[in-house]
Amino acid sequence: MPFRRLRLLLMTTMLALSIVPAAHALSVASLAEHLAVSGDVSGRFEQSRYLADLDTRIEGSGRYRFEQGERVIWQLEKPVKETLELSEAGIRHNGEALQDDPAGVATLIMQLLNGRLAALAERFEIDLQGSEANWHATLRPRQAGLAEYLERIDMRGGAQLENVQMAMADGDRLDIHLLTDTATNASPGT
Amino acid sequence: MPGTTPIRWLALLWLSVLLACAALGGWQLMHGAGFDTRVTALLPETAQSPRIERANAQLAAPFTDRFVLLLDAPDRRRASDALAERLRASGAIDELRYRPGDFPLDSLIDLLGPARYRLLTPGLADDIAAGDTAALRQQALATLVMPTALDQHPLRDPFALLDRWVEGAFSSRLDTSGELITLEVDGHALVAITGRLAGSAWTPALQSRLTDALRDFEAAHPDVQLWRSGMVFHAADGARQASREINTIGLGSLLGVLTILLLVFRSPRTLATLLLPLAAGGLFAFSLTLTLFGSIHLLTLAFGGSLIGVAIDYALHLQCARTLGGSRFRLASMLPGLALGLVTSVTAYVVQAFTPLPGLKQMAVFAALGLIGAWLSVVLWLPLIRISCHPGTERLALRLWQVLARLRGRLGPRRAALLAVAALVLVGLRLESDDSLRLINTSSPRLIEDEQLIQRELGRDTGSLYLLIDAADREAFLERAETLAAPLDRLVAEGHLGGYSSLAEHVPSHQRQRHNLALTRTLYDRELDPLLAAAGLPAALAPRARAELDAPPFLDLQAWLATSAGEADRRLWLGANSDASDSGVAGMITLSGRADAQARTSLAELAEQTPGVELVDRVARISTVLGELRRQIALWVAGALALVAALLTLRYRRRSWRVLAPAGGAILGVLSLYALLGVPINLFHQLALLLVLGIGLDAGIFMQEHPRAHHAWLAITLSILSSLLAFGLLAFSATPVLHYIGMTTLIGLAGVWLLTALVQRRESATDG
C-alpha cells in the first residue's frame, strides 16, 4: 500500500535533509553531494499537527538521531513514547521488527541518506530556492496516487535544516521544527 | 488385364474423394482451423459438474493469461526498462506492471473508510475482546501526532482502524516503496514484473513472440538474470521441444526408410508407389480429422506419423508380391490377407475412440482414417501402375528367406504356451503402473525451478488445489469461509500447508461485521476519552467521534469485487449458480504452496465434515482419470483382441496361434521386460503397444496367408525395419510421451519380427 510507504519515506526524507551542512550551490546534485558527508547528527524536534476541519492542533516532541550510513532513530517522547528505527536490517518499531515491512524500504532510505537523491527526485519534483544561508526546497509528488493525498512538502534551513512542513490535500498540515545538539559529530542521543 | 474396368472406375472415384478432401482441408486451414499444442487437450473432459469446470477455468486464468518475471541486474532500473520496451515491442503482451504507478489505484479510503468500524483483523478483535486495549491507545496516540496512519482522524478514526485493516488484510511481499516493484528473495531485492498476454497462452505465434523477445533481451544483457512463471512458458517449452523432435526424428526416419526401400527395390518408381498410399492416407485422415475436431493436436500428428509403419504394410506386401511374382501375380490372392490386416488394425485403433479422452479419440479417428485411406489407395491404384523388377530384390528376398529358415520352428505351441504363462505370471506379480501427471510434463527442469521459486515467494497458485464452497447466499458463503479459517490457519502454522486465499479475509460476513462493530464500541468506551486527553484534544470531540459508530454501512462483497483493489479476489468468486432451480452461490478458497499428505488428509476430512464444502484436487483427479483410462484401454483392447482371435480362428483354425503369437508374444515380452526392470507402465506405453499389436497382427496374417512366399517375409521385414527406424529414434526423445512410445515400439517390434520367424512351421525345403 503506497500510503504506508509514503509515511516512512516522508519521515526519512526530512531526516536525510536535516544533516545538510550547507548548500553551496542550490541544486539537487549539490544537496545530494552533501548528503553523502558522513557524521552523526542528533537533536530535538518539536512537531505540530494541524487539523483543518477541527481547527485544532496535536503537539508532540522528541529526539532524533542519525548514524551516517547505518541507522536512523526517531524517538517521540511526548505525548507518548515511541521509537522508530531504520537500518539496513529493516525497520524496528519500539524495538520490535515490523513484520510486514519489507527491508526494501530501509534500503531506499539508506540510499537517500547516502546522497542518492536521484531516487527521491523520481517521486518528487524538487524546487530549490534562496541562498546557502537561507534555502527553501519544495517537493511535489509526481505520482497521481500520492498527490491525491499529499500536496507538497516544504523544507527550510540555513546551515541546518530547520523546518519541515507537509501540506496534505485536505488542508491538514504537519510542522516539524528541528534543533541540532551540535553542528558536527554530535554525541549519541541521551 | 481382365476385370480391371470396375477397378478403374473405383480408382477414379477414390481420386475424386481425395481431391475433395484436399480442398476441404485447405479451406479449413485457411479459415482458422489449426494445430493444438495443449498437453491438457489430451486429458479427459472430466465428468464433473459444470460448476467445477467453471471454478477450474476461473482459478487457472491468472496463471494462463498472465506471467511473472523476476529480474536481477547490476542496474535494475535500466534493465527493467529495456526489458519492458522489448516486451511491448513484441506485441505478445497488452499490459505490463513493474513500477508502483503501473497499478490502477482506487482510493481505499473511499472504498473501505465508511465501513472501517466493522473491519477488524482477527488479532485486533481478540485483543479488544480480551480487554487488551492500552497498547492500542498508545499506538493510536503516536500516529495521531505524526500522521503516518492512513486517514487517522480524531473524529473519523481515532484508533486508526482503517490503517490496521489495510495493513493486516493486504500485507504483500511486494515492495512498492521504490521506483520499481521488488520482491526480496534470500535477502536480495528482485524486480517483479507481471504481464498480461495479448492472446491465448497456447497460440504458437504468441509463444514465440514472447520467448524470442526474452531470448533477445538476455542475449543483449548477459549480466541480467531472469526467472519465469506462467503457463505460456510451459506451453512454449513443450511445443518447441515436441515440434523440434518431431521434425528431426520424423525427417531422420523418413530418410532412413527411403534409403532402405531404394536399396531393396532399386527403382524410384516402386518407391513412389510405396509412398503414394501414405500420402493419400495422410491427406484423407488429416482433412477429415480437422473437419471433425476443428483442430489437430500436435501429438495426433506425431502418433499419426508413427502409423506409417502400419500403413506402409499394405503397399509393401502388394509390391513385394508383384515384384517377386511377376506375371504370376493375382490381386485376388492377396485380398484376404490385406483385408484381414486392415480389419484387425482398425479394430485395435478404433477401440480408443470409445474412451473419454479427447486426444485419444482424435488419434483413434486419425489412425483409422489414415489406414483406410492408405489401404484403398493400395488396392485401387497400385495394380494400375506398372512395376519394374530388379534381380537384386530377389537375391535379397532369398537371403532373408534363408535367415527365416534358420529361425523357424524353434518355438512350438507347447513351449510358446509355457512362456506365455510364465510371462503372464511375471507381469501379474511384478508390473507396476504410473499414472502421475508428471508423464505429460514437458517443461525443462530450469523452468520448473523458476516456477516453484516464484510460486513460493509470491504465494501464487495455479488453482489446482482448492476448496469449493456452496452456500444459500453471500452471507452464508462468507460465514462458511470464516469457519474454515481456523483449521486452515492451524495447517499453515504447523507447516503442512503453504498458505491460502479466502474472500473472508477481505470481506467479513455481516454477522462478523456486526460483532466487530460491537467490539469497536467497547474500544471507544474504554479508550477514547483517555486518548483525546493525552493528545491534548477537547473532550467535546468524544461524543462526535462516537456518533460515527451509530449506523455505519456494511462492506459488501459485490461492491468489493467491483473495485480495482478487489480485482485479484474475483477469481475466488463464482457467484450465483447458473442452474435456475438452485439459487445458491459458490466460491473458492485456494490453497497455495506445498500441501503435504497430512494437509491433504486434514483438508479431505474438513471438506467431509463441513456441509457445502468440497475439496478439489485437480492433479490427483487427473492422475485418477489417467489410471482409469489406462485400465479401460487395456480392457477394450483385450476385448478387441478376443474378437479378432475369434475372427482369425474362423479362417486359420489350428494355425491361429501362429497368427496371434507375434503380436501377443511381443506385447507380453515388452511387459515382462518392464516388470523385470521395474519400469512402471503408463498410458503412453500402452498406446505404443497398440502399434505393436497392429504390425504384429499384419505380420502373423501375411505369413499364414502366404506361408511359402518370399515376398511376404520380405514385406514383413521391411515393414518392421522401417517402423523400427521411425520409433527407435523416438526412444531418444526428451519429451517423455514420445520417449515412452519409442522405447516400447522399439522393443515390441523387434519381438514381433523374431517371433514371426520362430513360430512358423518347420519346412524341409524352400518351394517359393
Broad shape of chain B: elongated
Number of helical regions of chain A: 5
- What coarse outline of chain A follows from CA principal-axis ratios? globular
Weakly predicted, low-confidence segments of chain A: 1-6, 18-25, 99-116, 183-190
Count of domain modules of chain B: 3
Kindly, what is the distance between the CA atoms of the first and last residues of chain A, rounded to a whole number of angstroms? 35 Å
What is the terminal separation of chain B in angstroms? Answer: 24 Å
* Fold-level CATH name of chain A: outer membrane lipoprotein receptor (LolB), chain A
Organism (chain A): Kushneria aurantia
Subunit structure (chain A): Monomer.
Protein name (chain A): Outer membrane lipoprotein carrier protein LolA
InterPro entries (chain A): LolA/LolB/LppX, OM_lipoprot_carrier_LolA-like
In short:
Chain A: This is Outer membrane lipoprotein carrier protein LolA. The complex is a heterodimer of chains A (190) and B (768). By secondary structure, chain A is α+β, with helices and mostly antiparallel strands.
